[in-house]
Amino acid sequence: MNQDAASDQGSPERIVLRGHRGVGPAVEGEALVSRQGFSARYDLNRAIGTYSRESHDLYGHSVVGKILVHTTAKGGVATAWALLDMRGAGRRRSGLLFQQSNPIMVQGAALAGVAILDRPGPDPLDIIETGDFVRLDPARSTVEVEKRSAASPDGGGRLPSGDVPLARTV
Predict the structure, then answer these.
(1) DSSP H or E run through 115
(2) Within a 10 A sphere around the Cβ of 16, how many other Cβ atoms?
């Protein structure tokens, strides 16, 4: 693990994780973290871009513009078309980060133009928290994490500039 710790000037803590080479564009945005698996078909309301399965720990949270961090990818071919369906409706997440993905999720992400990376070390669920600012670069196999507590005194996911981080392609 590469940690560029905060300097004397109060720079935020930056942590870099490395995983398998992923697919998709480099993206950055606010993390949404779950210790449950993820299926674009069965966990989401694709029409509005929120978690819709009531038993999911992120029930009701919007995925639009977020970097989703999950344990594993779930589902078969339906999850691939669900990712594409969300892109067409303008409600896609910006990136997917898994402890362990599967070929169908990778295929769906590639088809929908969603960044995806898996098997980063150390375990992203031990490092990343909801609200942290994350830069996901699948081609470089890297995940850069700026801790929210360092980005904002109130932990609200704000950058030092005061801007609220919205996911974007970089």
Answers:
(1) strand 115-118
(2) 16
In this predicted model, what pLDDT tens digit does every residue of 118-152 receive, in sequence order? 999 999 999 999 999 999 999 999 999 999 865 44
What domains are there in the chain, each with its CATH number? 12-150 (3.50.30.10)
Report the DSSP pairing between strands 27-33 and 168-169. antiparallel
Contact between residue 72 and residue 101 where contact means Cβ atoms under 8 Å apart: yes
Consecutive H or E run containing 117: strand 115-118
Q: What percent of the chain has pLDDT over 70?
A: 76
Q: What is the pTM of this model?
A: 0.81
Question: Helical H runs in 12-170?
Answer: 77-88, 103-112, 124-127, 148-151
